[in-house]
Amino acid sequence: MKIYDVLIIGAGVTGCAVARELSRYKGSFLVAERAPDVCEGTSKANSAIMHAGFDAEPGSLKARMNVKGNKMMDRLSEELDIPFKRIGALVVCLSEEGLPKLRELYDRGIENGVEGLSLLTGDEAREIEPNLTGEVCGALLAKTSGIVCPFELTLGLGESAAKNGVEFRFDTRVTGLRREGDCWAASTDNGDILAKTVVNAAGVYAGELHNMVCEDKLRITPRKGEYCLLDRTAGGHVSHTVFQLPGKLGKGVLVSPTVHGNLLLGPTAADVEDPETANTTAGGLKEVAEKSGWAVRDIPMRQVITSFMGLRAHEDSDDFILGESAEGFFDAAGIESPGLTSAPAIGEYLAGLIAEKLELSPNESFDPIRKGVPKVADMPIEERAALIKRDPCYGNIICRCEEVSEGEILDAVHGILGARTLDGVKRRTRAGMGRCQAGFCSPRVMEILSRELSLDLTEIRKSGKDSQIVLERTRKEGE
Hints:
Largest sheet: 8 strands, mixed
Radius of gyration: 23 Å
Distance between the termini: 42 Å
């Protein structure tokens, strides 16, 4: 049986970041993911914010990784061909009593090394963000804060890793870990995997894996957050990410544009027991609508096109757990907000520790450049016409809301880590993310998946193993 240098458990943004950084070295690396694709857990459902770094406790791993990860994003977005915008953020105060807390955040940010911070009066904040409510009496402006697409960041990191030699094994759930000589043996539902070292990047399941092998136990609590996403017609309602002063359970309900022009509201924060929780609630979405209106007026809630929820992996110490927790076992646990921002720095940090431990040599053939699926709708007319002339599939529009062509879907299916599900196509191309929420394009995307992957329609899944769309069909004569 092959012995890998490193087994990474989890193909979220943290696991893919570690994988990409490890691919800068010579070695054998494998990512095992329980879902059928990258970005299926916490990484697919969050606020899509690149945090500036003023909120984390000075000296904590959260503060250190947040600030460094934020600074890495300009270069990384160019290398990975992903959208990223430094639009800035406002943390607003809704009462005079909260102004000292605003000053504390400013001071904390300065101590953390965050640049571009300033304190504003309520009137000064409304000058740059006119739709703030009259209750806003002060704000902290963080110019380095930004927005990103979490799907494309995770995909970019994963595809870059795969391009540089990292193996990915999907639908592979790690159920046990044990030492066999100098190696770790990971039991999975697809057979055992042997590796010299293991990286635990399993999100809300990271505590379970840690507790299998470590005497000091972790308790990871899934923290549920619900969101509302508004149509692109509402995307210009604010130009900055608007936070409210953070509370005990997090940064509160935000209002933010997205890199694709929508408006995002949320999240709520409620601890749950079940790490498989996936439902939104009437009460949670009502809370999102009400609390977002405290800071931003006249939000066009009739423009909501979908709602969703995500789980954050909250660890009791309220900090990231990073490093070697047992011989050859490296944790990336408790990765909640600002985990998305911190992921590039976490990847660099852990890959460095592992490379030193295993005495890995640099991979001189490492190529940092990854190209995503082309966005035909964003191309200049001449460029689009030339592409369609070369391949007419790029002129066949499958998703009308987002103007996604058949050619783009084919690129997604046949890419480095090709899409195998409806959600996989959606996250790579945005087919199904528009106003009608896949009402029109789903059957056509399913036909393409069926044709290109030689699958019966009954085998096409939305996402996980039990998410078939067509349960059975009557075959026509001659089939």
